[in-house]
Amino acid sequence: MRLIRTINDWLEDRTGIESAIKSFLYEDIPASAGWHQIIGSMAVFFFVIQVFTGGLLAFNYAPTPGEAYNSVKYIMTELTGGPLIRGLHHWGASMMLIIVVLHMIQVFIYGAYKKPREATWMVGVTLLLITLAFGLTGYLLPWDNRAYWGTVVTTQIASQAPIAGPYLLRLLGSQGSVGNVTFSRFYALHTVLLPPLTIILIGIHIYLVRKHGVAAAPGDTAPKRKFFPEQVFKDTVGVAVAFIILFVMAVVAKVPLERLADPTDTAYIPRPEWYFLFLFQTLKFFKGPLETVGSVVLPGVAVLTLFLIPFIDRGPMIRLGKRTFAISFVILAAIAWTGLTTAAVVTTPKNQESADDTETPATETPEAAPASAASATPSAPALAAWQRLTPEELAGLGLFKKQGCMGCHPGTGQKGIGPDLTKIPAEHRNVAWLVPHFKNPSQVVPGSAMPPVDLSPADLNALALFVLTVTPQNEQALLSVPAFVTQGAMVYQSNHCNSCHQIDGVGSTLAPALDGVGLRHDRAWLEKHFADPAGVTKDSIMPPYKFTPPDLDAICKYLLQLPKGA
Amino acid sequence: MDQPNEPPHAGADVSPTRRAFYIGFINGAMSLIGLALAVPAAIYLLFPPKLRKGQQWVQTADLSKIPAGTPTEISFERTRVDGWKTTNVKATAWVVKGPYNEVVAFSPQCTHLGCAYHWDAPSHTFICPCHTSVFSIDGKVLGGPAPRPLDRFMTKIEGGRLDIGPPEPHA
Questions:
Q1: pLDDT (tens digit, 9 = 90+) per residue, A351-382?
Q2: C-beta atoms surrounding A130 within 10 Å
Q3: CB contacts, 8 Å: A447 with chain B
């Protein structure tokens, strides 16, 4: 104890820190101060939480569009405590905004912004705007579809501002599209510029509160009290309750991480964070040339009014009970906000993303392709999904299964590490992009966790062709296709049958097309024909083929199931 | 929030018991919140990431091309899991083949501070240029500050080809 005393005395002598803390804590506050004034401290506390959890996230976050998503996924799936830290940051952001707004409402209905506290109020409004800016810029950083599309809409709204629009867009780096530049600027704002700015403004705000003293209720002439410990206790209760709520949210509520941002996804319905929904809904009331009224003019006027409130309402402070106008204004605003937000939630259709969690309906049952029944008529009107694919594509499917691709790409609706193959963006939907990607994934897609696919060029080509045929409709059926189909197709491909034969218009016409061959011949004929073509068909120039029994079985079954050509 | 460890210097506006309760609550609540943040943060930063396996075994050289009795440095590509990214990196190993095709593959880093050592044919030893650690052909420390013998990779021979695996655990 003596040692602590000595250290304290030394520190006090050299820095004066102890007396500084004391004069902060033993500040005089009015006797009427109390529970209604705890919200400001709570806001400061939440800012500290955001800085702390944000810093932790930044330790494992790669701030480029190429890697941001992968690193967030890494935080969420591979780091112990990662989802909790991200949960605290995500829900903390929402709670901070709620608390800042509640603080503002409290000051507003008490009329605590009146002379001489106008500057305190205006710094406070700036802090509210900064809190919103934190939300807006942070929204983009996970770089999932939600982030990307939300930001597209935001930047487009900014571009509608009269005169300043194009310049704003340039400042946000979003001319043309949201990409690298916008991302870097949002990241810089979120982590480099806004936090110190907030700290400075909070400092000024608290300094001003101290300078003018906490606003007393009108007629409060009771002797002043000290800030510590009673008011600090009340503040702490508020902080603790809010923190418990936040912690429970972070543990219980899963923070969304949708799939990687996809600028080509035309089906995605962008939606802002919940606290911006009222603006989103307001926009719907203004059509055509009036749109800027909803997107820029109205919010602009609202913010300006908010700033100027101390100059609009200049009367002396009066009792809370007499501030009927202020109270009714807050109630009306709350009703309007709730109405707009509810309307936005109700009228926005659900994204397919959320529907993805439910089972994907299989349009074609895999069993429709009769594995055992060689007797099934290949000309049956309903074609199995695989029957629409060329042998090369089917061989690709075989490789897809053999290479274990399904481990990461298990199909729509199932959780896989890899992206959904039915949602490959249009610019990547070609063999020229896919094959180099298979060979060296992380060089084509920076940050890709996919291991290189080690196959011959022909096989890589087949694999790419297969991937291009996958649609949400045929995916389930294709992935569960009977083994003889893919095996047969792979035998067909590796023996270059297509050099002479044709299936469904693909291949050479040197020899008869094989469509519907099962209608003309049976299994025994095929087997004999493979062994000795000329012996079965006179003048056949086809060389004999000796397959292993499983290969022979597969290719015969496969050929016999080929549908009749169109 | 900090609190002074002295009684207030002015205006005792609450009773001492109340005051003690307030201060106790403030300290307790703030400590608990601090713990609730510090413990997850420590777990988040200190626990190793859940294991995502890179490629374990890599096919490398044709065994017949490695001379017997002379350490040979071979290079190969390995996938490395690096945070959220899996990359292909070039890796090397010093391979020593015995007369009966038995093979030892040494990790190419000195066990002292990780410098790359080399085979010195005249002295028939591995020598690290940094702090002159010296290792025998079977990896034993002959001199210098190296704390343990050279680290080894697991090896297996398949069809005359040498496959190199993950590092062997230290003995």
A1: 654 433 333 333 333 333 333 333 333 344 46
A2: 20
A3: 84-85
